[in-house]
Amino acid sequence: MPLPVVVPLLGAALTLLLSNRPWLQRSVSVACLCTTLAVAVALLVQAYRHGPVVVQVGGWPAPVGIVLVADQLAALMLVVSSAVTLCVLLYSVGQGQGETRETAPLTIYHPTYLVLTAGVTNAFLAGDLFNLYVGFEILLAASFVLITLGGTETRIRTGSTYVVVSILSSMIFLAAVGLVYAATGTLNLAQLAQRLDGLPDGVRLSLQLMLLLAFGVKAAVFPLSAWLPDSYPTAPAPVTAVFAGLLTKVGVYAIIRIETLLFPGGQVAGLLMVVAGLTMVIGILGAVAQSDMKRLFSFTLVSHIGYMIFGVALSTVAGLSGAIFYVVHHITIQTTLFLVAGLVEERAGSTDLRRLGGLAQVAPLLGVLFFVPAMNLAGVPPFSGFLGKLGLLQAGVAAGGPLPGVLVAAGAATSLLTLYVASRVWNIAFWRAPRLATAQPAVRLPALMVGATVALVVFGLVLTVAAGPLFDVTADAAADLRQRTPYVRAVLPDDAP
Predict the structure, then answer these.
(1) Distance of alpha carbon 1 from the chain centroid
(2) Distance between CA 133 and CA 131 in Å, rounded?
(3) Is 183 inside a domain boundary?
(4) Disulfide-capable partner of 302 in 263, 283, 468, 472 (CB 3.0 to 4.6 Å)?
């Protein structure tokens, strides 16, 4: 159970000691993430068959000690995040010394990347609010290094914004943790599920809004998302990819967890729906106005967070199931698109659409690697993006009412605009005649970079083929989240109702 956290941390220490042996660094990093993925799959099977897996760290029983919990939601997030981080690591290994042209220290990259992975896995497994805060801080500390890797002026400038926003959200989160403890006398999530219901409505709502504010910044929901499009595109391609795929989804995961376990009942459902609708529409309108692939994908990233928040706001099994499915889909597809943008930059020397053209002619495989996930993100049938959006929109229709109806319309419009954005990139960068950047002599793309991207494209297609079984898992996870009893009983068997 602790291995998904412990193995990357031990690997980070070992790779730091092996700083003078890059090939050993790479081998240790890949081995650590392969181990993490294998353990995550085992935990998902165990959680699906037998319910939440719980470990009392150090033998201290909950709620006194630190508890790690892998229910179906946490285990599924572990599997997807482990698979994605492994592919991105292989991509960065294939990139090799590409970043050394900007004096990026490869010896620091691997330890920091593994620390980031440990922070993500710790956040998913955390069974109390303070350990969740620790998980966020671990991944944020590592992300501060990765986003400024190379020390260029642009990365330092945009990274500074990211650091300031992250620290501010962490301060809000820590203040909320203190207030929760003052009001309830505990930070254990299972025990909080029992005690928060007894608080006065005003106190309970204030705690809920503070936590939502902190996690909303981390998830980049509107109007707390302005920092993201300026921060992510300047980082190295693998860093941007893992940030886009995972870091915002940890914030979404935290929102799902607190809204179902700690604050059930949908007291702020209307607010969340408004936020979801604005996130979808304003994010995709920002993407329409972009002329750089990385910035464009950053705005689509913000936009599609709105779909997940919509599912959470519905507070139904169907809505939560659709949200969880869409998180899994979006982690995979958004990461893939940023890796493709890195390949375009490697091949053409730029991701500026005004300098690109003819990529489908000069690099047909690159065209396929973009086209498949782009259509998936746009929700073209029969891809997983279509299935996830269909599930969410059906849940919205079933919920009834004017606000869910408006959100269904906003979701459909956002999907059409995403298709327009994807088609625009295809027409300009891949379909029209070669231009300045692509007219240069052919650059051979590293096989490992291409292979890692192909693996994620295939993984996205597997999500489509296996959508039925995956929806079964997400529906079971959503039902458990709504009931709360399986989680509470697993952590506090003596106190559970």
Answers:
(1) 21
(2) 5
(3) no
(4) 283
